[in-house]
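Pilot study result, target chain (271 residues):
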Amino acid sequence: MQKVTGNVYAETELAGCNPGFVVTSEGVVMIDTPQMPADAIKWRDEIVKHGPVRYIMITEPHGDHFSGIHFFEGTVIAHEGTREAILAADVEQLKERLQQTAPENLPFLEGFSYHPPTITLNDRATIYVGDHTFQLTNHPGHTPYQVAVYIPEEKVVFTSDNIFYETHPFLHQAVPYEWLNSLDRLQELGAEHMVPGHGEVCRPSYIPEMKAAIQDWIDAVSDAISKGLSLEEAQDTISFLDRYPMDARMEAMGPMLQRMNVARLYEVLKK
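Predicted structure:
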């Protein structure tokens, strides 16, 4: 666990997303949750040292961000689209994935259920907890439902998966041009630290590099379409694995991710 500022902590070494939390004068506010049940339980035992969890803010509609909610108390806040994704999540599918990838976590799933948010937003919301302000804003990109959480008193922003710091981005549900606009909006916040969805805690100076990575994906697929390549031909020729490595725990799925990214962009750009 990394101490980002005096009251902000983040974890960048777990399988899945980077969860974090903020210690306020009225309790703890979590941003996202550990994906693996065993990690979530360890985190819960650590966080209790800082106070009770008041809120859990979920930044996007993928399971590596929201699966751990079950193990915590606190009011859950997320985008309306993320609520729909949580309501549609299947516990049996989770058990099957863990059986294949991390069976040591299965004993922790007795009585497990997905917990949808009780407060949602579509555009923005501001939550005041003690002396801290949490500005939640929909920043479409990695999915249409991404939410950035900015804490101005700490000058820290949790970016969701709109920032992958020096690791390969997932574009399989992306809205690419909105993603570029959202990165501009992140730049304007005035944050000094960014907790990305994946990769190490970084500075806003990384945003131009992230924009360049998304733009290069757009340009490559646009070029393939303009040349008359079919989807399959584009998938066979486009790869950016030499630009950023996959997370070491997901290295084997690198080639499949390239094809997923191309398929999504091909669909969006053909329209």
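One observation from the pilot: The mean pLDDT is 96. A full batch analysis is planned for the follow-on phase.
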